[in-house]
Design goal:
mainly alpha, three-stranded antiparallel beta sheet, 6% strand, 2 domains
Length: 231
């Protein structure tokens, strides 16, 4: 959907923005960049999913924000031309809201096959967009709204998954901490795992020592390489 929005936004800008209504080309740049950011951050977030759920969520949220920005551009484009966006219960808006991508099978050649599929879906959408400026802006506004809604749902799901188990990077950190705790000495005061630290002041400034991981609740410590707590 984000790929379709990027293609159609570029087409809309090329057809309907000109020196008269966009003399410095800023609206063209802003709209095409917002559409690109929506798609690009979804792609990057999907790739980051394997290593960090936190990064995936952050990038998906950037994609959502970019598409919300694009929605505002289409709204202002309509308003500046004296038109209001379609009401959601209008026949035109319902037709766009009900439009769906056609089913597809396997993609043995993912890049070629997915792009061929996208071009076919664009041809299917063309009758809804037509060559009318306001109609095309309304259609794209609704497609952006649909995509923002899907991203909002996805972010909610990702948040639930992250709360339960984190991502790969977060699980690696937890594993590393668990191994470190297993190899660390136990605090002589409370029995918790200790952390290797460096003294910052006093006669032992700059010297390593083991401090309780529950500090400042517990101030237990051992000198490095010494099984007994220091005096």
């Amino acid at each position: 959907m984000a790929s379709l929005i990027q293609l159609e936004t570029r087409a809309w800008c090329e057809r309907f923005l000109n020196h008269g209504n966009d003399p410095k080309g800023r609206q063209y740049d802003q709209m095409t960049q917002a559409a690109r950011s929506g798609r690009a951050n979804i792609m990057e977030g999907s790739q980051r999913a394997a290593t960090s759920k936190a990064d995936e969520m952050r990038l998906m949220d950037v994609a959502r924000a970019s598409l919300v920005e694009l929605m505002g551009d289409y709204e202002m484009a309509l308003l500046s031309r004296g038109k209001a966006p379609w009401a959601l219960d209008s026949p035109e808006a319902r037709a766009v809201a009900d439009w769906r991508f056609a089913p597809h099978g396997d993609w043995p050649d993912p890049v070629h096959d997915s792009c061929t599929y996208l071009l076919e879906q664009r041809r299917r959408l063309a009758p809804l967009i037509s060559e009318d400026e306001a109609r095309a802006a309304n259609v794209l506004l609704i497609l952006c709204r649909r995509t923002v809604g899907m991203l909002t749902h996805l972010l909610r799901r990702l948040g639930e998954m992250f709360a339960q188990s984190g991502g790969f990077r977060e699980r690696m950190t937890a594993t590393r901490l668990a191994v470190r705790d297993a190899e660390a000495p136990m605090c002589p005061k409370c029995g918790a795992a200790m952390r290797k630290r460096t003294a910052r002041s006093g006669p032992r400034s700059g010297m390593p020592f083991w401090g309780c991981s529950r500090w400042p609740t517990c101030d237990g410590r051992r000198e490095e390489g010494n099984a007994e707590p220091p005096p």
